[in-house]
Amino acid sequence: MTNDYMVSGDGRKPKLVAPPKACETHSHIYGPADQYPRVPGRSPDYGGSIEAYETMLNRLGMERCVIVQPSLYGPDNSCTLDAMAHFGPSKARGVAVTKKDVSDAELRRLHDAGMRGLRFYLLVDDFVSADAPEMAKRIAPLGWHIQMQDDGAWIADAMPMMEKLPVDVVIDHVGRTPPENGVNDPSFQALLRFMESGKCWVKISAPYLATTDGPPHYADVGDKVRALVDVRPDRLVWAANWPHPHHKDASDKPEEADCLDVLLDWVPDEAVRNAILADNAAVLYDFDD
């Protein structure tokens, strides 16, 4: 398997000056195919090396990171674990994918390596939403969360199940709710209600996945972020979603600085913005502050 292009970490420097211990909370690392076997039939990676990722983090002023297991590797977390080890425990955490019958010993091994969440990427079949209650019981003693992502009108249907889980739930990419109805979308309104419970976290990330306005301002996504900030600003974190696996053309790759600079408009209160960029992630991902 070869890449059509290699994503670099280069780009413009953002206007936003990140606070100390700022954390980028959702990106993927890919390695050589002969070292890290791929799941057959899944989309190939488009670059995504540790070196390029580190360049991007430094450009954005991010001191910490959370590396999320990509769907390409299924439950084999080797590449993600190696990337976490590259940065070290003071700077990196991870979110894993496992088999449904994963042993307690393996979960403990992953925890000791820095994993703090279990990924439910419902656009592939590693897990389905019906697996969440049982897997949540398995990870609850470790203090992990379940990270969920789907697209369309999914949150309203899934919320009764998510509310009953014995762990926190992290929703990716501002929920990926349909952009046409904006903040009035029923699934987004369900997300706001779930946020009020304090058991839900939301990643401000990948605005390009559910927008009609588009870059660089993503104004319709900004309306949703402002609504989330009004409800629970202490349950929001920021992410780049690097290397933007949905973008298969180098010329179409989003600019990470655009996705960071929009916070200057969406979250004008500097203290709240700094909490989203640093303090909240330190809590969610169990950094030793």
Question: Which features characterize this protein?
Answer:
289 residues, alpha/beta, eight-stranded parallel sheet, 10 helices
What's the short version?
This protein has ten helices and eight strands. With 289 residues, the protein is an alpha/beta fold.
Work out the radius of gyration: 17 Å
Query: What fraction of the residues are assigned to beta strands by DSSP?
Result: 5-15%
Are there runs of 5+ residues with pLDDT below 50, and where?
Answer: 1-5
Distance between the termini: 41 Å
CATH superfamily: Metal-dependent hydrolases
Order of helices and strands: EHEHEHEHEHEHEHEHHH
Number of strand segments: 8
User: What order do the strands of the largest sheet run in, or round the barrel if closed?
Assistant: 1-2-3-4-5-6-7-8
Principal-axes geometry comes out as: globular
Could you estimate the helical fraction of the residues in percent?
Answer: 25-40%
**Biggest pleated-sheet summary:** 8 strands, parallel
How does CATH name the architecture? Alpha-Beta Barrel
Would you kindly provide a written description of the structure presented here, covering whatever features stand out?
With 289 residues, the protein is of the alpha/beta class. It has one domain: TIM Barrel. Helices cover 33% and strands 13% of the residues. It has helices at 50-60, 78-87, 104-112, 132-139, 155-163, 186-196, 219-231, 256-261, 263-266, 270-284; strands at 23-27, 64-68, 92-96, 115-121, 145-149, 169-171, 200-204, 236-238. An eight-stranded parallel sheet has the order 1-2-3-4-5-6-7-8. Helix 5 runs parallel beside helix 6. The chain is globular, with a radius of gyration of 17 Å. Residues 1-5 have low confidence and may be disordered.
